[in-house]
């Protein structure tokens, strides 16, 4: 008999957390469906079950079974959660960009397309990262004696930027570039008084995932920047910041990742300037109090200049 809650979630964030908790226990097919729904919540709200099933590559009955396993009467009942979220959200640049067809491959058109996608990416970032989660990550980094920065492949420039920014803040950090194949030995020096900040996007680097899981298991605070709430890196880390990208482009943008890295650096600098007592200690709950408001203020859209 499928495990289900007596009252299934009616808010999207609660459904998201339920899927994250259950993800490891879902079948491979159910994991594929859950990931698609979380990564494409607007499509989950608007498309029919037949269209969604075709896009995911499963039978419509598979979506119904997942919904029932989560405690819903059927997929239509589950879909109400995504529709409620959509009613509370707003149109972003991405909604407009996705209505455009292919553009000619001349320089001006390519530039226009990339600029539009960059704007859309930043709009998605602002809408998808909760202030409390962001504040928790900042407090975790502030409380660390040393921050270990870990990335391979495409997100490595973001880790490199963070090493530069943290060094300018006089925050002890180590960029793990795996030179000489010594990354595991370097990371084994981390203690629970330190923190690991790791980045990985599809296709994920297994080494990064394994190292983060090892450090989380050793009690070292770990923060992930990744592209899905149920990505392997998100599930390996103690806290995850999600950057949702549509995955349609040949060259995936790093705009949102860099903006998030800059946000972490600026917010960390603000917190460190408040003095040693400002960082979350063992008696404080991460993401609480005035710093949540500070991060929320930082994320609030600025008013147009006169």
Query: Averaged pLDDT, please?
Result: 84
**What is the CA-based Rg, rounded?**
20 Å
Number of helices: 15
- CATH architecture assignment name of the largest domain: 3-Layer(aba) Sandwich
Main sheet properties: 5 strands, parallel
Helix/strand structural class: alpha/beta
CATH hierarchy class name of the largest domain: Alpha Beta
Question: Could you tell me the strand content as a percent range?
Answer: 5-15%
> Element order, helices and strands?
HHHHHHHHHEHEHEHEHEHH
List the topology elements:
Layout: H1 12-22, H2 28-39, H3 41-46, H4 49-56, H5 60-69, H6 75-88, H7 93-97, H8 107-128, H9 131-143, E1 147-151, H10 156-168, E2 173-176, H11 183-187, E3 195-200, H12 206-217, E4 222-226, H13 232-236, E5 239-242, H14 255-273, H15 290-299
Parallel strand pairs: 1-2, 1-3, 3-4, 4-5
